[in-house]
Amino acid sequence: YSQYVEELKNIVATKVLRQLTVIYDSLSLDRFSQIIPFFSRAELEHFLVQTSKHRSVKAKINHRENCVCFN
């Protein structure tokens, strides 16, 4: 089953991210990493960038405010 773990993590994280964009306008990176605990902080930021790049969701990371902003 180990061959499916990474893909399952990505699918679950994408579904959670889509639901979060409906509920929140912005969310702190700390809270976001609590909601999706199976990614490290760097992996989470990379995931957000890739998801936004492929236009699955509109999200921006604001490092100054330490949050994720959903458009």
What does this structure look like?
A three-stranded antiparallel sheet has the order 1-3-2. The model has no long low-confidence stretch (mean pLDDT 93). The chain is built from three helices and three strands. A hairpin with a 4-residue loop joins strand 2 and strand 3. With 71 residues, it is α+β, with helices and mostly antiparallel strands.
Q: What is the secondary structure topology, with strand pairs?
A:
Elements: H1 2-23, E1 26-28, H2 29-35, H3 41-53, E2 59-62, E3 67-70
Antiparallel strand pairs: 1-3, 2-3
Largest sheet: 3 strands, antiparallel
How large is the radius of gyration?
Answer: 12 Å
Q: What class would the helix/strand composition place it in?
A: alpha+beta
Terminal CA distance reads 36 Å
Strand order of the largest sheet: 1-3-2
- Helix and strand run: HEHHEE
Q: How much strand?
A: 15-25%
Strands, total number? 3
Gross morphology: globular
Query: Mean of the pLDDT scores?
Result: 93
* Uncertain residue ranges: none
Tally of contiguous helical segments: 3
